[in-house]
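Researcher: Go.
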Amino acid sequence: MRDHEDGVCLDVMGRKPGRGAYVCPDERCFNAARDTGKFERALRVKISDVEYQSLHDGFLNAIDFEKRLQESDVEIEPADGLTDVQ
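Model: Structure:
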């Protein structure tokens, strides 16, 4: 999502204020959205390679967390501060 300071961050829970973009929880979807410029169009901001790498790392961590959570049959929501990627 784009925050009020024109930065981008990952908002796994979808609760932060700002302009957001949804991507399915699959690395191929993330890569396709990046490669075609869909994130930049949706968020109306230029995203640097460093920001993309940070978003990608956070995205993969979130997918991994969700998989482990499903395997454990425990319902836990991550704390907001733990899901931010800046």
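Model: The chain has a mean pLDDT of 83.
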